[in-house]
Specification:
The protein is of the alpha+beta class. The chain is globular, with a radius of gyration of 16 Å.
Length: 149
């Protein structure tokens, strides 16, 4: 079994919204999308995929919160967008961002139990959190980075 995603290749954005995801035998991946494109989740993106699906399916979000998994076929990367229809306030976004940074402070300590590669992944995640205020649509529409596993 492999994880797969389905997306519309004609969507205008470079990061295409994923319309469906799941697991199937590797030989059946191409059949999952119908008229859309289906691909196996790249191995390099498996942790991101698993974290994003957990966030999308989490009961912690208000029912009106829109959670979208996106796939960029050019770079074969996944991202997660979370949007409240009324938009989140800057204060709310900053509070979430600050908490996520605080929760990951330990990853940058010299004695953190991480390989140099994992520590670099965490450093990238933390930089992406710091860059959130410069995203287009901030604070009402934010693409949250998915933390490394």
């Amino acid at each position: 079994m492999v994880a797969f995603i389905v997306y519309d290749p004609d969507h205008s954005a470079s990061a295409k919204p994923v319309t469906e995801y799941g697991d199937c035998p590797a030989e059946d991946v191409a059949d999952q999308g119908g008229s859309l494109t289906s691909v196996a989740v790249p191995e390099s993106q498996m942790a991101t995929f698993q974290n994003a699906v957990a966030l999308i399916e989490s009961p912690l979000w208000a029912d009106s919160t829109i959670r979208t998994l996106n796939f960029n076929p050019a770079t074969e990367t996944l991202s997660l967008s979370i949007l409240s229809p009324s938009g989140m306030s800057e204060r709310t976004v900053d509070a979430i961002r600050t908490q996520l940074l605080a929760d990951s402070d330990w990853t940058q300590l010299a004695d953190a139990p991480l390989t140099p590669a994992k520590q670099a992944q965490w450093a990238t995640y933390r930089q992406e959190l710091r860059d959130i205020p410069s995203q287009p649509g901030y604070p009402g529409s934010v693409s949250w980075p998915v933390k490394p596993t």
